[in-house]
Design a protein that fits this description.
Largest sheet of chain B: 5 strands, antiparallel
Shape of chain B: globular
Strand content of chain B: 15-25%
Number of domains of chain A: 3
CATH architecture of the largest domain in chain A: 2-Layer Sandwich
Number of helices of chain B: 12
Strand order of the largest sheet of chain A: 3-5-1-13-10-11-12
Number of helices of chain A: 19
Largest sheet of chain A: 7 strands, mixed
Number of strands of chain A: 30
CATH topology of one domain in chain B: Enolase-like, domain 1
Structural class of chain B: alpha+beta
CATH topology of the largest domain in chain A: Aldehyde Oxidoreductase, domain 4
Distance between the termini of chain A: 61 Å
CATH superfamily of one domain in chain B: CO dehydrogenase flavoprotein, C-terminal domain
Oligomer: heterodimer
CATH architecture of one domain in chain B: 2-Layer Sandwich
Strand content of chain A: 15-25%
Helix content of chain B: 25-40%
Bound molecules: flavin-adenine dinucleotide
Structural class of chain A: alpha+beta
CATH class of one domain in chain B: Alpha Beta
Radius of gyration of chain A: 27 Å
Order of helices and strands of chain B: EHEHEHEEHHHHHHEEEEEEEHHH
CATH class of the largest domain in chain A: Alpha Beta
Number of strands of chain B: 12
Chain lengths: 754, 341
Amino acid sequence: MPRDTAELFGKPTPRIDGVAKVTGAARYASDEPVANPAFAWLVTSAIARGRVGGLRLDSAKAVPGVIDILTHDNVGALAQPPAQMDGGPTTTTLETDQIWHDGQIIAIVVAESFEAAREAANRVEVDYVAEPPSATFDSPGVQVEPHKTTEDSKDPAKGDAAAALAAAEVKIDARYSTPTQHHNPIELFTTTCVWDGPHLTIYEGSQAMWGLKANVAKQLGMDPAMVRTISRFVGGAFGSRGGTTSRTAWIAIAAKRLGRPVKLVATRDQGFTIATYRAETRQHLALGASRDGKLTAFVHEGWEVTSRPSGYNVAGVDTTARMYACPNIATAVHVVHADRNTPGFMRAPPETPYMFALESGMDELAHALNMDPIELRRVNDTKIDPVSGKPFSSRSLMACFDQAAAKFGWSGRNPKPGSMRDGDWLIGWGCATATYPTNIGPAAARLAVTPEGKVTVQLAAHEIGTGAYTVVAITAARSLGLKVDDTTVMLGDSSLPPVTVAGGSNNAATTANVVYKACEEVRRRLAEAATADPASPLHGADAASLQLKGGTLMGPTGASEPFKAALSRVTGGVLEVHAENAPQGSKPGAVAGLYEGKSAMVRGTGRENVTTFAFGAHFVEVRVHERTREIRTPRVVSAFSAGTIVNPMTAHSQFMGGALWGLSAALFEATEIDRKTARYVNHNLADYLIPVNADVPDIQVLVVPEEDDQVNPLGIKGIGEIGIVGMNAAVANAVFHATGTRIRDLPIRAESLL
Amino acid sequence: MRPFTYERAGDLSEASRLGANTGQGQTDAPVQFLAGGTTLVDLMKLDVLRPTRVVDISPLGADLAGVALTSRGLHLGALATMSKVAEHPDVRRAYPAIAESLSLAASDQLRNMASLGGNVLQRTRCPYYRDPSWEACNKRRPGSGCTAIQGYNHNHAVLGVDENCIAQYPGDLGVVLAAFDAEVELSGPSGARLLAFTSLHRPADGEPHLETNLRPGEVITGFNVPAGAWTRRSLYLKVRDRSSYEFALASAAVGLDMDGETVRQARIGLGGVAYRPWRSPEAEAVLVGKPLDEATAKAATDAAFAGAVTHGGNDFKPELGRRTLVRALLQAQSLPVSEAS
Ligand SMILES: Cc1cc2nc3c(=O)[nH]c(=O)nc-3n(C[C@H](O)[C@H](O)[C@H](O)COP(=O)(O)OP(=O)(O)OC[C@H]3O[C@@H](n4cnc5c(N)ncnc54)[C@H](O)[C@@H]3O)c2cc1C
């Protein structure tokens, strides 16, 4: 049984890799030194649908320093398209001459220098055989179909929602939309490939070390044992580096053709089309309630854009239908195939768009009921998952609302829209629910400890900026009763024990639980040896009752011996253990699958006896200029309750960053598409707006304590994604309160309010 | 980026000699002057501008970076940085609109690099211009057509456009210079000359690739902004979705000379909405001799936007532009300025 988690966790701890990061010593993938690299530059398509009729390369080849140009003609047969996380098909690149979307890779120039490669790429002339493309919703030629469901992922349904809606005393029925968004992690998409005989090493920022390794091996028809992936630090991922994308295998092929390392650093604008994105959605939401606010009907439908071949979708109704108690539920999700690249995970993939509709709708319903929006949530709060009927393992939603409301000063709100102002600025206060399922995955870890108390922990987990190294160090050091400063953590290398994909906010729970298990193995071996040794002060004690604490092995009565003595008894040198953890509820073979690059996860809605989610509440103040309608957000208070908080310092950053991204999603971000050509037009950070420092408000984050030993032995819920969820609705609700205008299409900008 | 030769001009005559081939077109201009490089280098990396020779004129900054306030007006050296002029106490006091147009532009880093001469010559942000993978752009490839007219034109111009180009002039400073009767000082192979600032940029005339009336080899050496009763009661209002570091959705430069409640003279420039730095004599005329209140302000803005042409994505601009100007006028009226100069 685990120790009291409060003893292990909850102490604010600076990142152990912080100094390395701010001094530039931390190596991101393209920083890894390789000998004599050649440089690659991608040539991407300027049409969204058709074929590459021909490539005229003479002028490009004439650029001094150009070594090789990869095209469909010379390398197309050498790789298969990468497997997708959803198991389905995706668009191709050099495998065929087909063009599926704007900005698709159609050739790769390799040169002695970055500059020569760029110049030559600019000189490649492409003869296109173009066909009229379909850009997005309402474009001629899109194909709409219901998304595919499985036994495990049926659309939530219960009772008779249509009849209940028709009979409801109060109802709202509205349509919402969310725009295309791109992750734009500050670290660009890069790949460096190095061959050493038959061995391939890939340096590439990744959220799935073993997944990337297995996938690329399969694409190239290689034994995965011959492929190593390295990604010690990742400059932001947010889902964009979860799946394998096409560029990697081609860079490996380029390096092989040259017998020399090849390095690719794709440009910011190429990042919009060679990786994934959050697809635009349209949603229909209808809520019925009785006069006292109790929900009687819940109808939520979504439409999501995807590429021609892929059925990728996020189907956030699976979360929204579980949010509030309601006896009658109907949901549906459709995919809309257009000539676009395949979308993919982006921070809280289902919840960010779908909770916008639900939490806006709840605010509309509260207004229709003349009820405080917090009270509406209270009336419909539930301890039981309304879809499955299983209990929530814990749910502190209303505690979050109440604490955040108190801090925010919500009681001072005049509910009448347009009633609060400060000079020329209209003031609006809005709130919304945040939620995210609690997931955990299988993992393996290797832990070595010396008699001096120096610990080394190795696992192929992922530091995507969240503080993953520090989570592992804290867990190992505190569980062994040793010092964080004496702990060395190695992550981001597929030659280390495998860990599931860093997605679904599972990383802290996954890595802490497996590392704890390794520590527990150390404790058990030391305890069993000590209790059996007549020379030990712990001789004869119950081995299970001994703990590693404060540099000692300690018994329940206070008798103890130094760690060094306890360890020296079992080994003359270093004690090393290899631990594997298949979380409760894992499918058979989950751990074995890790070694084949398969990323399993026990999901919040896929457990046998409980449903597991984390909850939170956002409060935001907006100010809208009465004439020119700019929207500013001076302050935010957000409260979250998410089980054991391993490191409050980095947790604060995750919550705050999430809330800020939520503001950004509400007010700024949208990838714009030219409807006639299905091409992106604002694919750079000057035109794709994200908040600048001057837009960042005073964000106060409250953590509501919560214990939940059902989610996993250490009680850790994921916190990486919940912060963004619902903030877009909180802002829209505040804008309504400020102006009386309900905006249901994101982003909300000055022009929306003229 | 394509290979080019880099040269430094030590003085004006060298600049004119080395720059003798500065063309006026966009992609085809074989020689470009380089000041701060924040426009030029970006566009070279994007393969939009492809000069074969780049003439660095930053050495001229030794003589051409001054700021001088005299009874005749304000003189600004073309190589003064945006940040220097934005922070200059004389400019802030006597020409607040100029200081504000600069401090609200770009970012600290850019303002520290960028020169005033380069600033007024910055290129449009039209995405179809800035990305050569688009076939049709009359500004980049003369005669190829305009993709923006039927494409994504959210931040495109509504004033001064024609059927060949609806690109918006994105700069802020130019809006104030246009409103305030500024002159541009030029030095070229055939000597020095002065040009009204409003004549620096050409109107839409079917040749959008030709943006200015600069002659080959001509260097902007400075700007004269005449003295006027309106310069102190002046401001630059910039409306945008972000609080900072964004081009204007709509902006207004306003200078007022007030006789009590009544407008004696007005200077009005509009940004974020026009094809080139835009002055609105129509709006100024509406105000002269009238008390400045909500109704006259609205009448002036209606006059300013009477000729607006929209293309779908920018349908909101005339309304936002009108509101911006009303707000700017009323805000300028209530500035705490003593009329005595
Ligand atoms: C991300 C970003 C955001 C920005 N935001 C804003 C904004 O909000 N508002 C705003 O107003 N501007 C903005 N800018 C534009 C910026 O102000 C200009 O790039 C800058 O002022 C140009 O000055 P420079 O000295 O760097 O010019 P350069 O890039 O050196 O030159 C620009 C052009 O002018 C020519 N040139 C330069 N000096 C002379 C001269 N003395 N005589 C003749 N020709 C000359 C060059 O040949 C070149 O064609 C932004 C720019 C960026 C990159």
